[in-house]
Amino acid sequence: MLIDTHCHLDFPEYDFDRDEVILRAKEKGVEYIINIGSSLQGSRRALDLSEKYDCVYATLGIHPHEADTFELKLLQELELWAKKEKIVAIGEIGLDYFSRPPILCQSGSPLLSHSLAEKNYSKQENQRPLFVALIKLAKSLNLPLVIHSRQAEKQTLEILKEAMPIKAVVHCFSGPLEFLNECLSLGLFISFTCNITYKKADNLRQLVKLTPLEKLLLETDAPFLPPEGYRGKRNEPWFVHILAEEIARIKEIEVEEVAKVTTDNAKKFFNLR
Ligand SMILES: [Zn+2]
User: Fold this and answer.
1) Rounded distance, CA 181 to CA 175, Å?
2) How far is the CA of 63 from the centre of ligand 1 (A)?
3) CA 36 to ligand 1 centroid distance, Å
4) Residues 175 and 207: beta-carbon distance below 8 Å
5) Distance 26 CA to ligand 1 centre (A)
6) 221 Cα to the center of ligand 1, angstroms
7) pTM of whole model > 0.90?
8) 2-97+120-269 maps to CATH 3.40.50.360
9) Rounded to an integer, what distance in angstroms lies between the CA atom of residue 99 and that of residue 81?
10) Which end of the chain lies in a sparser environment, N or C, as judged by fewer CB atoms within 10 Å?
11) Number of CB atoms found within 10 A of residue 154's CB
């Protein structure tokens, strides 16, 4: 049995066949699915899914992309929902300093149609207070954290170190190696997605090799990052078995061992029964 510790089944990509996607995961040996909240509305939808499906647990979080528009007073809402039985963490929360280069039209000015997409990315000075406030909330509720960090490793570590002691997983881990070592030395968990199966992902496979199985969680981040062979398609929780097989191959151990240890890790981390 496996656990997909990070996916987004509340997204519209599943509106037409959500029941089937969850049933398929169960039939193919996914014991639990953790649906991650990434906005206020998304967190509410995650909570609703956890109440509708036995095998679904949920987290509540505000993604750093939301930082420009999210009002901190709305955290009261999350605090209320967090008391529900199947809420198992606060996340995904963190810092995302990735910025998309503007796409220029022939005259050299940014194309108007792309300025909308760029609005998804929030200012760094707004991301930090949101992240800090959500860590504080998690600590007050005694819940673990699901961390998103993209091109902001140094700043993420600063904030996490200041918040110690905390229980956290760094999701969709992509390095670099120094970041992995720092995270492990803080006792954090590391979760990898199916992008470790991509042909050019030797650096990620190296990081998998260096992460002790006892510190590893499995996630699909569905609908994003489908495994090699399914690229361009929608990802879904049952593909977590492809991830487990790849980790077994990289670590040269049996897939049953990967399943057993990572499932135990997830149950302890999220306090699942
Ligand atoms: Zn995610």
Assistant:
1) 9
2) 9
3) 7
4) yes
5) 21
6) 5
7) yes
8) no
9) 32
10) C
11) 13
